[in-house]
Write a structure and sequence with these properties.
By secondary structure, the chain is of the alpha/beta class. The protein has two domains: 241 residues, Aspartate Aminotransferase, domain 2, CATH 3.40.640.10; 136 residues, Aspartate Aminotransferase, domain 1 (Alpha-Beta Complex), CATH 3.90.1150. Helices cover 39% and strands 13% of the residues.
């Protein structure tokens, strides 16, 4: 059997047909496919507005800009996430204030958030790590209590729900992302979702070089002053192309199918690994199995192991053509953050302990039973090897 990749997009003839139709249309940017894609994502999140952007990172950046967060401000967030969730805070000149995580959900521990709020706190940026929405409703209540906007980083959770509420419906705004390993893909891209009309209009302008909404239908306008070249504010080129939007819209039509396939793969892994010693499986709340939107499948070693053993296991898996990675290294220990912002090992012990023992295993909709068996068998051999080395 050939190498089993860590992730792989699920693309059918429907997506290929949608993209080739755009190429034949002659309209490659700012067109009807983008509008459709925005509508489909916003509807799935239970929001009025969707604003398509070039990446999830771009979406988070624009949300913070639209909320007027800047130098001297603080934003509370998690140290256990992909680095973009903290980078976007630095991109607007603000300071990320990390709080440690709940070892069960891997999301921010709500009990620690209020203690981190200061007069400089201007927002909470909460991440649904690996697509797990646990605590998002509690964090939303904390944000309301302290009159702080909540930015929901739902980049990893499209299609999931918490107590019947769709992921993306919490707080002032949310941001989805569509890198090829996500639930759906546009290649690169993201969508901001919100009910706030003013914030939506501002994000639309910011993504399009600071142009006003009236100039966003194309170059040809009846305004002799040339509104396409009229820029009301400092903006960015964060637009999503018609090609990417067509791919995204076609994938959105298949979202329930793709989520069901991912749950099937999760079931195969869980049944195979549930009785293993020295292995902690991802937590799923009772009754939420059909509401969870799985982004990746990340297991972690028990505390008898450390990062040295974990890294050797990952190397062994790769050597045997099984994709694996260390999701996620702690953000505050990344070289830039420790060097420039002074964070150090021991600042957030729960996140650090978990981060040193995580292993992301191959996970994508078309993964079959034979591949799962091979992954699990190889993982078991690698763990047994480490156990023997410790004797």
């Amino acid at each position: 059997m050939s190498e089993i990749p860590l992730s792989q997009p699920d693309i059918t003839e429907s997506e290929i047909h949608a993209v080739t139709n755009v190429l034949r249309s002659g309209r490659l940017s700012i067109g009807p496919r983008r509008d459709l894609f925005e509508q489909l994502v916003a509807e799935r999140a239970g929001r009025r507005h969707g604003i398509a952007v070039s990446s999830g990172t771009a979406g988070l950046h624009l949300c913070l800009l639209a909320l007027d967060i800047g130098p001297g401000d603080e934003v509370i967030t998690t140290p256990f996430s992909f680095i973009a969730s903290a980078n976007c805070i630095l991109m607007v000149g603000a300071k990320p204030v990390f709080v440690d995580i709940d070892p069960s959900s891997l999301n921010m521990d709500p009990r620690l958030i209020e203690a981190a709020i200061t007069p400089k706190t201007k927002a909470i940026l909460a991440v649904e790590v690996f697509g797990n929405p646990k605590h998002m409703d509690t964090i939303e209540q904390i944000a309301r209590k302290h009159e702080l906007p909540l930015v929901e980083d739902c980049c990893e959770g499209l299609g999931g729900k918490l107590n019947g509420r769709p992921i993306g419906s919490f707080g002032r705004c949310g941001v989805f992302a569509f890198y090829p390993n996500k639930q759906i893909t546009t290649g690169e891209g993201g969508v901001i979702v919100t009910d706030d009309h003013r914030l939506a209009e501002l994000c639309r302008s910011l993504r399009n070089q600071g142009r006003s909404e009236s100039s966003m239908t194309g170059h040809n306008t009846t305004n002799t002053a040339g509104s396409w070249l009229n820029h009301e504010r400092l903006g960015y080129n964060y637009r999503l192309s018609e090609i990417a939007s067509a791919l995204g819209a076609a994938q959105m039509e298949r979202l329930d199918e793709l989520l069901a396939k991912r749950r099937d793969v999760i079931g195969m892994y869980m049944r195979r690994l549930m009785d293993w010693d020295n292995l902690v499986l991802p937590n799923c709340e009772p009754g939420s199995e059909d509401d969870r939107s799985w982004f990746v499948f990340v297991v972690r070693l028990s505390t008898v192991f450390g990062h040295v053993e974990r890294d050797r296991i990952i190397t062994g898996l790769r050597r045997h053509e099984v994709g694996a990675s260390n999701y996620f290294p702690c953000i505050h220990l990344q070289p830039f953050y420790s060097r420039e912002l002074g964070f150090k090992k021991g600042d957030f012990p729960i996140a650090e302990s978990i981060s040193e023992r995580t292993i992301a295993l191959p996970f994508f909709p078309s993964l079959d039973q034979t591949q799962v068996e091979l992954v699990c068998h190889t993982l078991k051999v690698m763990i047994q090897r480490e156990q023997l080395l410790k004797q």
